[in-house]
Design a protein that fits this description.
about 375 residues, alpha/beta
């Protein structure tokens, strides 16, 4: 029996027929998927795409988070992590502190480090170059995922350099890939409410275009369930897909449910339901047919929902993320560290085959000058 014959919902059956014939979903299809009550049919379609790409494998990583500072010029209303330099609890990691944290994590067996932080005017580019070189000196083959498009734009302006020069210098110092943070929602009117001082969605996409052109693979994210509307979600997904058609540089798409505790965004919305999350992830898998991986951060959605999502289009459970701070500052109720054994158990209990990897999914970085 083919995919289309298994779908009961008439509107989703039309989408399934497109998927079977490798015809991309259009915006009307996306609206249908994001509003359907036929959640099992939607999951069947998303899982068809997932299995076509990855079979029964589910990826996970053994990694650590490092947030080098929580001091940030932007102080976005959506952010519970950032603070001013004068605030109690503000910090900047010294290179000795970086070395100590990484040495301890490497001793525990990590393969990867994920580095992001606030926009601190006192941290010039040499701080980050020395940080990366220090990490490489501790474990030469560690996979380094570092700095969002927002940070690269800031480093360029602060140091009076081009984004290309900043990227090249940090790649030479050790960066293997770039996280997808800072994308939020591209819609200008929503961005004005949740992150008014952050670079525009168009600029975020432009920096990713530059990174992709230099051979750097990146993630893309989407923050949902705050001030956005359905059209904003659709617009966001299609801008990602359009750039991916052009560059092929996105390796993973990561939807992120908004956590509002300790932020200045109060959307007067209920928390997302399981159906809400499933619609977002499954629809993303179908619409972003050209992005290889869909990742569910178990720290954001919880272990149980992450496990469910493995059967609704998701192929990556994320990693152990030792000492995650950003989403926990906003009230996430999950642990701030996961064990490899626990992640493997979650995957196997969902009927999948766990595969340990890094954010490169086994590929070596190939960066052009």
């Amino acid at each position: 029996m083919n995919l289309t014959d298994t779908i009961q919902d008439r509107a989703l059956r039309t989408i399934a027929e497109k998927v079977e014939h490798n015809i991309p979903a259009d915006q009307a299809d996306t609206r249908t998927m994001l509003t359907t009550s036929s959640i099992l049919d939607l999951g069947t379609i998303a899982q068809f795409v997932r299995r076509r790409l990855h079979g029964n494998i589910a990826f996970y990583g053994v990694n650590m988070n490092m947030n080098y500072t929580n001091i940030c010029e932007l102080r976005c209303p959506l952010c519970a992590f950032s603070c001013d330099e004068s605030d109690t609890g503000s910090y900047v990691l010294s290179l000795n502190e970086v070395r100590e944290r990484v040495e301890n994590a490497v001793a525990s067996g990590i393969d990867e480090i994920h580095i992001v932080g606030g926009l601190h005017p006192g941290l010039k580019l040499d701080y980050f170059e020395r940080m990366l070189q220090c990490i490489r000196g501790i474990k030469s083959d560690i996979f380094i995922v570092a700095f969002t498009a927002v940070e690269y734009d800031y480093f360029a302006r602060l140091n009076n350099l081009s984004v290309e020069t900043v990227l090249r210098r940090l790649i030479n110092a050790g960066v293997n890939a770039t996280p997808g943070g800072g994308a939020e929602i591209f819609s200008p009117h929503v961005r004005e409410m949740i992150a008014p001082k952050k670079i525009s969605g168009a600029r975020w996409l432009e920096i990713m275009r530059i990174a992709h052109g230099m051979g750097l693979k990146t993630n893309a994210t989407m923050l949902y369930n705050h001030q956005e509307h359905l059209d904003d979600v659709i617009d966001h997904l299609f801008r990602i897909r359009t750039l991916q058609d052009e560059t092929g540089g996105f390796k993973t798409f990561v939807p992120l449910a908004f956590h509002e505790t300790n932020t200045r965004i109060h959307a007067n919305r209920r928390e997302t339901t399981g159906y809400d999350d499933i619609r977002i992830y499954a629809t993303s898998r179908v619409v972003l047919h050209n992005v290889p991986h869909i990742k569910a951060l178990w720290m954001y959605v919880g272990e149980k929902m992450a496990q469910v999502l493995l059967n609704f289009g998701v192929d990556d459970m994320s990693g152990t993320y030792n000492d995650e701070k950003v989403v926990h500052a906003a009230g996430a109720r999950t642990a701030d560290y996961g064990s490899e054994a626990a992640l493997r158990r979650i995957i196997m209990d969902a009927g999948m085959v766990p595969q340990r990897t890094t954010a490169g999914y086994g590929a070596k970085a190939e960066v052009t000058s």
